[in-house]
Amino acid sequence: MSQKDEVFLIDSNSLISPYQLYYPFDFASRFWDQLKEEIENGNVIILDVIRDELMKGNDELSKWINQFDHNLILDRRTSEILENYGKILNYIQTSGLYKEKALTEWSNVNVADPWLIAVALTFGYTIITFEKHNGGIKTMNQLGSAKIPDVCRAFDIECRDLFYMMRALSFQM
Description:
Elements: E1 8-10, H1 13-22, H2 29-40, E2 44-47, H3 48-55, H4 60-66, E3 73-74, H5 79-94, H6 100-107, H7 112-123, E4 126-128, H8 148-154, E5 159-160, H9 162-168
Parallel strand pairs: 1-2, 1-4, 2-3, 4-5
């Protein structure tokens, strides 16, 4: 898939970190305006569980995410996404790489990570997250938590950071 055709599915940390650390609304409004435009154009996708997570805050970011028409927020409750969600959880359970704790955490329907991967698997989207790989995962050293980039790798899903997306979409600051 060429960068031009790439559609980005954004993790909440790729919105929360910029808001809190380097692109606050009061002096980096251009970032948020460009992101809003890319969401409205369908180049950046917000998943319903991500919106719900952001809405828990009572801040400018929750107000910003609340401005979007519900039609611009992807509903995860389709049969194809649900089927892939099951595949993701099955991988966590049967790969031998993760402890039961990782499956328990990701089995919570309000945890966005497996939903992001299921949606990316369904539609071929690139996930945008600041999460990093766990490193050398081995069955003899099972992990208590799963990371998006590691599970994406297992399903051959692109997983990049926010700055990759900003460059691909020609954001100007």
